[in-house]
From TrEMBL:
Domain of life the protein comes from: Bacteria
Pfam family for this entry, one: ADH_N
Protein name: Quinone oxidoreductase
Keyword match Oxidoreductase: yes
Organism of origin: Ollibium composti
Gene3D superfamilies: Medium-chain alcohol dehydrogenases, catalytic domain (3.90.180.10), NAD(P)-binding Rossmann-like Domain (3.40.50.720)
Boundaries of every Enoyl reductase (ER) domain copy: 11-323
Keywords, sorted A to Z: NADP, Oxidoreductase
Length: 325
C-alpha cells in the first residue's frame, strides 16, 4: 500500500501525518506515477495552516511539485507510457509515494536533468521563468530587486537575471544567506536585519531605483518595495510569507510615480498546456546550459515532512529542499 502525508485539520507542522493512502487507478486523461522526489515550498505551509483553503476539503495531501516515473496511463493518454520520467507543478497532492494526476499537467524530464533537480525546480523554476520573462520582461541593463534572495525562487532568479544581463539586488536575513545569494548571481545583497533596504537600494542605484521589485514576503516589505521603484515601475507581489498586505489606498501609486502592482500566481501562467510546456522548456534549457544551477541544500524523508515544515517556517533552510519517498 502506498503512503502519503495527510492533513485532517489545519494547524502547525504536527498535523502532518504519514499514513496509508491508496492512490487508485488512472481514469481517462490521467496517469499514475511513483514519486522519486518531491519539492518543498512555502505554499505548502499556506495550505497546511488554512491561509489558502483546501480545494477539496479534508483529508488534504499537501505538496505542489514532484518528479517520478509513470506506472500506468488512463484512456486517451497516448503521449506518455510506463517508465517515462516526468515532473509537474500543481496546487496539492505531491506528498505521497504514488499519486494519480491529470496527464496534461505532466512534462517529460529531458536527459541531463535528474529527478531530484526536476522536483526541486518545477514550481520555483517556472515561477522564476514567468516573473522574469512575462510578468515583467527583464532586459539587459534593467535593475531588479528580489526579496528573499536566498530562498528557492530567489536563488534561481538571481542566476537567471544575471544571465539576462540585469543588475541584481537581493535581500536576505543573515550573513550566511547574504553570502549564498551573492554566489547565485546577485550583484548586491542587503541584510535587511541590519540595513534599511530602501536606503540601500537608493544608494546602490544612485537614487535611480528599480524597474521591478519581486516581493514574496508581503506585509513586512510591501511599503518599502514601492519606495524602491522608479516612476512607472512594477511591484510583482507573488507571495506573503510575513502575512497578507493590509487594505491599501491605490492613490498612493499615483503619489509614488504612477506605479504598477500585480499579484501573479504560477498556476494562472501555466493554466494552458502550451504555456506549461513552454515554461518548463525554458527552465530545462537554462539549467541544461549551465547558466542556472539547481543546488539542493536540504533533503528530508517524506515521513519527516513535519520537521521539514518546522525548519522552513523557522527560516532554518536555504534555497531548495526536497522530500524523498
Amino acid at each position: 500500500m502506498s503512503k502519503a502525508i495527510r492533513i485532517h485539520a489545519h494547524g502547525g507542522p504536527e498535523v502532518l501525518t504519514f499514513e496509508e493512502a491508496d492512490p487508485g487507478r488512472p481514469g481517462p486523461g490521467q496517469a499514475l506515477i511513483r514519486h522519486t522526489a518531491i519539492g518543498l515550498n512555502f505554499i505548502d505551509v499556506y495550505f497546511r495552516t488554512g491561509l489558502y483553503p483546501a480545494p477539496n476539503g479534508f483529508p488534504l495531501v499537501p505538496g505542489g511539485e514532484g518528479a517520478g516515473v509513470v506506472i500506468e496511463v488512463g484512456e486517451g493518454v497516448d503521449w506518455l507510457k510506463p517508465g517515462d520520467r516526468v515532473a509537474y507543478a500543481v496546487n496539492i497532492g505531491a506528498y505521497a509515494e504514488q499519486r494519480v494526476i491529470a496527464a496534461d499537467r505532466l512534462v517529460k524530464v529531458p536527459d541531463g536533468i535528474t529527478d531530484e533537480q526536476a522536483a526541486a525546480m518545477m514550481l520555483k523554476g517556472m515561477t522564476a521563468e514567468y516573473l522574469l520573462n512575462r510578468t515583467y520582461k527583464v532586459k539587459a541593463g534593467d535593475t531588479i530587486l528580489f526579496h528573499a534572495a536566498a530562498g528557492g525562487v530567489g536563488l534561481l532568479a538571481g542566476q537567471w537575471a544575471r544571465h539576462i544581463g540585469a543588475v541584481t539586488i537581493g535581500t536576505a536575513g543573515s550573513a550566511d544567506k547574504v553570502a549564498l545569494a551573492k554566489s547565485h548571481g546577485y550583484d548586491h545583497v542587503i541584510n535587511y536585519r541590519e540595513q534599511d533596504f530602501v536606503a540601500e537600494v537608493a544608494r546602490i542605484t544612485n537614487g535611480q531605483k528599480c524597474e521591478v521589485v519581486y516581493d514574496s514576503v508581503g506585509k513586512d516589505t510591501f511599503e518599502g518595495s514601492l519606495d524602491c521603484l522608479k516612476p512607472l515601475g512594477l511591484l510583482a507581489l507573488f507571495g506573503q510569507s510575513s502575512g497578507p498586505v493590509p487594505p491599501f489606498n491605490l492613490g498612493v501609486l499615483s503619489q509614488k510615480g504612477s506605479l504598477y502592482i500585480t499579484r501573479p500566481t504560477l498556476f494562472v501562467y501555466v493554466a494552458k498546456r502550451e504555456d506549461l510546456v513552454a515554461s518548463a522548456k525554458a527552465l530545462f534549457d537554462v539549467v541544461a546550459s549551465g547558466a542556472v544551477e539547481v543546488r539542493i541544500n536540504q533533503r528530508y524523508a517524506l515521513k519527516d515532512a513535519a520537521k521539514a515544515h518546522a525548519d522552513l517556517e523557522a527560516r532554518r533552510t536555504t534555497g531548495t529542499t526536497i522530500l524523498v519517498p
